[in-house]
């Protein structure tokens, strides 16, 4: 764990997943973790916009995106 503590099988953890994985992509949760597919939606705590939506919103609000070569 980030604080140096060990992983515990008895503990409950919140994890961040891409929308692909959170929606069952790659069967990581269903086959790997053994979570039934019909229970995936109930386990979501928060859903945030993906990068495409964030960029689209920026274009809609500002009309352009300024890019600088570094």
Architecture overview:
The protein is mostly helical and 70 residues long. The protein has three helices and no strands. The model has no long low-confidence stretch (mean pLDDT 87).
Strand content: under 5%
Structural class: mainly alpha
- Percent of residues in helices: 25-40%
- Counted by DSSP, the helix tally is 3
Give a short account of the largest sheet: none
Q: Can you tell me the residue ranges where pLDDT is under 50 for at least 5 consecutive residues?
A: none
What is the β-strand count? 0
Instruction: Name the assembly state.
Output: single chain
Tell me the overall shape. Answer: elongated
| Overall mean confidence score, pLDDT | 87
Q: End-to-end span in angstroms? A: 35 Å
Element order, helices and strands?
Answer: HHH
What Rg is obtained from the alpha carbons, in whole angstroms? 18 Å
Summary tags:
single chain, 70 residues, mainly alpha
